[in-house]
Amino acid sequence: MTQSVQIVILGLTLGGVYALMASGMTLIFGVMGIVNLAHAAFMVMAAFIAYFAFKGVGLDPILSIVITMPVMFVVGIIVYRLLFASSVGDIHRRGPVVLLTFALALLIEGVLGYAFSNIYRSTTPSYAAEALLIGPYFIPEGQFYAMLMSIALLVGLWAFLQYTKLGYAIRATTYNRTAAEVVGVNVDRISTIVFGIGMALAGASGSMLSFLFSFYPSKHWEWVAIMLALVVLGGMGSLLGALIGALVLSVVAAFVAAEFGPTWSPVTFYLALFLILLFRPQGLLGKKPEL
What we know:
The chain is an all-alpha fold. The protein has one domain: ABC transporter involved in vitamin B12 uptake, BtuC (Orthogonal Bundle), CATH 1.10.3470. It is built from 11 helices and 2 strands. It has helices spanning 2-32, 39-57, 65-84, 94-116, 141-163, 165-175, 177-182, 187-212, 220-234, 239-260, 265-279, and strands at 131-134, 137-140. It has a two-stranded antiparallel ribbon with strand order 1-2. Helix 2 (39-57) packs parallel to helix 4, helix 3 packs across helix 8 (187-212) and helix 9 (220-234) packs across helix 11. The model has no long low-confidence stretch (mean pLDDT 87).
């Protein structure tokens, strides 16, 4: 029993971080219908920023979000205006847009690989190797602090969407893009801002990634598969669904790792993605597509 509770604790602490990783991808899809396969590549880019900030000036990787989030927000706006602005809203161009994000991921991987080489890196703050002891259980401090920051950012995102004028416009665009435009919402401006917010969330995720896991430029392919599983399980475009999917799958993956070894943990997400698409493609909280 003690071992099972310990596994659940470890799974939930990582689940909060996974939810942050998936939130940017599902927000962008909800507003624009873009399946951004380059999202994880932007996360790795942000992880490099956090890594060099830590090595250069000793900036704590969690606090590095004050750099990674604004930088990735600006990068997101530039990328959106250059590559996606003319395609959003045209349902017939969604297929080519997905391929474009795939090509963008390859480009980012190539540039990072050329600049920094494909060697494993990670930041090593003092708490990365420490643990909090609660009775017979332990919580790795790095995972615990990353989870708290992730939850804080997700709560902030929820409050922003629920209680601000811009948040109302974003939610209206998510529910019905055409209707939002009819009532005066500038959907092009909203889409630009949302893409920037999604990239800012990727920046924060990269900061967490930099000390929770080792990373290198090609690592993003493993992460994009994991995030797709989380987003599809919860329902494409549903932030709450992404949170639930992240918590559920991270706990399941923790049990798989404990039973069969850590190398089998990613298989949990791949298998979940396959089964969800096969039996319930709309996910837990997603809307069933209409003919």
